[in-house]
Amino acid sequence: MLSRTLYRCGLRDWHLHALSLGSIVLCVVLWIRAKTVDQDERGNAERRALFVGLWPPTFWLVGDSLRDHEREARSRGLRWR
Length: 81
Hints:
The chain has one domain. Helix content is about 80%, strand content about 0%. It is built from four helices and no strands. It has helices spanning about 1-10, 15-35, 40-55, 55-75.
């Protein structure tokens, strides 16, 4: 159901895979930035980087699910509406 809704909104599997890779880059940038802030704020900055680091697997798996549903619909000859 989520895959169908995302497809109807115009999202494709490669969008979510790119978003996954982008969030990995964002996590690394936040982690590097956390090393440059004051010691008092470092813990919060590191937690923010770790939180963003949890996003990539979710985006990747949703993209895989969307790709699987898209392939299934093609094999059945159905059109997504």
